[in-house]
Amino acid sequence: MQGYELVKKIEKERSGHPDRVFIKWWRIEEDYIDFDLVARFLEKLNPSSEIAGFELIDQEQMWEAVQSRCKGRLTRERRNGGWVLHWTAPKGAEVEGTLPEYPYTPESLLKILDAETNDNYVD
Q: I need a labelling partner for 96 at 20 to 30 A (CA). Which of 5, 9, 60, 105 fits?
């Protein structure tokens, strides 16, 4: 799947599920899986890029993927009507400033996942 065909499929699925703000995608070689925000993925997509498949997921599904990756070093807490993430980065992780807590946002989940996997998620 590449270029225009890929964009059409993503947009069609996205229109039926606006809460699915993440894309989980994999290459033809199936050597790794990557995650991104759907909007950012589409912005960066090169028309000649080819991928084997994708799945759009919502924030709760992304939370589950990140939490399982963190092996007990990530929790979320309800505070003032919203959620806050508490994360302890693994030793040696490259993180821009280590905060004890992060807002429960799509961007925070991706930032944590990238640090946990060294930008190389393997399922």
A: 60
pLDDT at residue 98, rounded to an integer:
61
Share above pLDDT 90 across residues of the chain, in percent, rounded to a whole number: 61
Q: What would the pLDDT profile of 15-42 be if each residue is shown by its tens digit?
A: 999 999 999 999 877 677 899 999 999 9
User: d(Cα 103, Cα 76) in Å, to the nearest integer?
Assistant: 9
| pLDDT above 90 for 48 | no
How far apart are alpha carbons 11 and 108 in whole angstroms? 24
Adjacency order of strands within the sheet including 53-57: 33-37, 22-26, 53-57
Beta bridge partners of 83: 78
